[in-house]
Amino acid sequence: MAKELRVGMVGYGFMGRTHSNAYKRLNDFFAVEHRPVLKAVCARKPEKAKAFAETWGYERVETDWRKLVEAKDIDLIDIASPNNTHYDIAIAAAQNGKMVLCEKPLAMNTAEAEEMVQAVEKAGVPNMVWFNYRRVPSISLAKQIVEEGRTGRPFHYRATYLQDWTISEDVPQGGPALWRLDVDVAGSGVTGDLLAHSIDTAMWLNGAISRVVAKTETFVKEREHVETGKRQPVGIDDACMFLAEFANGSMGTFESTRYARGRKNFNTFELNGEQGSIYFDLEEPEYLQFFEYKQLQSGRKTESHLTGWRKIHTTNSEHPYMSRYWVPGTTIGYEHTFLNALADFVDGIESGRPTQPDFRNALQTQRVCDAVLESAQSGQWVATGAQV
């Protein structure tokens, strides 16, 4: 008989939907011992929370997260609410013995993140941060290729994460839909929202980022605030570019903006090594491009006339996660990255081998994000302290 994993969800927005979908479909695709049960969803607006609960099948609605984290019939707290809520909820959940899953970025800053790590580790509760792009099969295959030594000594890493949804000056800030533009709620702009993903992927594939130098820009200086109706200064970064030095000696470039007209969720990376290169584009997630340098059998240092980039369609059963889904040649989607992440988390509970990234691992990404913002203020290189 399956063991129940009783879920308390905080938040009913975009991430609440993606996480809820993963809980509902877990046992359809993964043979794990636990069966998620959607016990309660918590939000400040009861009417919207009730509609969300009815759509996704949650048993009840709470309007106070403190009541949720203390509930005896909840095993796991999933924090899918804005960034400025993560700290209080995570610490209280851990102190009440709950497993804690948290959306990225982990916290508003490194100081908060460090306390959150201490809380979950002191309580000994399983924990994970939803850096779901690690679970794109193509990105997991890239990790496998790097670990197999196929790219060799790394020289360069470059990443972009581009969107265009805030270009209009008429877009307001704040409120349930646009809190990402409110610095008091989000903490930062594209650095925490988009580059956190890029940084996590980069350090997963290429190791720790040791120091950075950055430039940020806020193109629209004032926006109307949804809650006050008044125009007020915009405190988040609309765009960010930074150079990075990795601990392994390689160099990195990172760029993110919400002002790239025509780019909706353009998330790419390329790693160049002595023996090969890999390239990924989230707008074509079913493909990973791989270049492998091979010497001729004679030993001459020249490439074969057949050497070139391969466009690997990552849908075979031997590719990461794909044995759980369809036949070769058929793709999976964005929602499956959360399902894959949840499956890894539950497997970690059952096997005793905790999955990554946990809070301590996500703390390293938080340190890099903070170093980027500090460098943008000072114009100087800043050490990150990251130790991935």
Radius of gyration: 21 Å
List the helices and strands in order.
EHEHEHEHEHEHEHHHEEEEEEEEEHHE
Q: Summarize the amount of helix as a percent range.
A: 25-40%
CATH topology of the largest domain: Dihydrodipicolinate Reductase, domain 2
How many beta-strand segments? Answer: 17
How does CATH name the architecture of the largest domain? 2-Layer Sandwich
Low-confidence stretches: none
Distinct helical segment count:
11
CATH superfamily of the largest domain: Dihydrodipicolinate Reductase, domain 2
Largest beta-sheet details? 9 strands, mixed
Going across the major beta sheet, what is the strand order?
16-15-14-13-7-12-11-8-17
Q: What would the average pLDDT be, to the nearest integer?
A: 96
- Tell me the count of domains: 2
**Which structural class best describes the helix and strand composition?**
alpha/beta
> Overall 3D geometry?
globular
Strand content: 25-35%
Straight-line N-to-C gap: 39 Å
The oligomeric status of these chains comes to single chain
